[in-house]
Specification:
Blueprint (H helix, E strand, L loop, with lengths): L1 H16 L2 H34 L6 H11 L3 H12 L14 H37 L4 H11 L1 H16 L3 H7 L9 H11 L2 H31 L1
Helix pairs in contact: 1-10, 2-5, 2-7, 3-5, 4-5, 4-8, 5-6, 5-7, 5-8, 7-10, 9-10
């Protein structure tokens, strides 16, 4: 119990003192997860919409693949990306291993299937009625797709929230491809693992509390957007 109370004290101390190392870790965490969820959304929403608008018979294999990827263990995703980006891998020449870019790729691989899968389910649940209505009004393919996305926005926003929740707290994949290098690839989750291994439990708890606080405010912001979309 004393370690928990000391961890809470350490969290407030780090926040109030605006510790330079902490700020660097926090901003890197937000940058990596932020870019990952944006790119994952740009890929996942169109993909999920496309699959959701097609008949289930035609997309059965793709749907099974996406649902399988939604549950991919982070360490497995990290290992596969490591093999692709390492010096002996097909993309080793790019020199991306142990860089923030590799960490972003890893998080995209985890977030995109979730966004695509949940978007597909949302579009499929009401897309048919929307398409029929839009066709009766003479809408073209582009307008039909946009209308379906607009009508499914609550589900899509929920998919984005779920995807972000998965990657902001992810540690296995980013540690494998990022290496947890101080000042370069060390993020909140990998810093917690490091401090725990060192026996600095108070600092690890403090970092964990800061991560929870950040996650709460970001997810609250996304939730409020979703609630606003529901009321419109």
């Amino acid at each position: 119990m004393s370690q928990l109370s000391e961890g809470i004290f350490e969290a407030f101390r780090l926040i109030i003192s605006l510790d330079a190392d902490l700020l660097q870790i926090v901003f890197l965490s937000l940058r990596i997860s932020g870019l990952s969820i944006i790119i994952g959304t740009l890929i996942g929403v169109p993909l999920g919409t496309l699959l959701g608008l097609k008949s289930e018979k035609k997309t059965r294999l793709a749907s099974k693949l996406i649902f399988t990827l939604m549950g991919t263990p982070p360490v497995v995703a990290g290992l596969l990306i490591y093999l692709l980006l390492s010096r002996m891998g097909p993309f080793g020449i790019l020199g991306l291993i142990y860089t923030p870019t590799a960490m972003i790729i890893a998080q995209i691989s985890l977030a995109t299937p979730i966004i695509a899968g949940l978007t597909m389910v949302g579009v499929r649940s009401r897309g048919k009625d929307v398409v029929e209505t839009a066709l009766s009004l003479g809408a073209g393919p582009g307008l039909i797709t946009w209308t379906v996305i607009k009508e499914s926005r609550i589900t899509i926003l929920g998919a984005i929230i779920t995807g972000f929740g998965r990657i902001i707290a992810e540690v296995g994949a980013v540690m494998i491809v990022g290496g947890n290098i101080a000042g370069q690839t060390r993020v909140m989750t990998t810093a917690i693992v490091l401090e725990t291994r060192r026996g600095n439990f108070e600092l690890a708890i403090g970092l964990g509390l800061i991560l929870l606080i950040l996650s709460f405010f970001i997810n609250s912001f996304l939730y409020n957007i979703q609630r606003g979309a529901r009321s419109n």
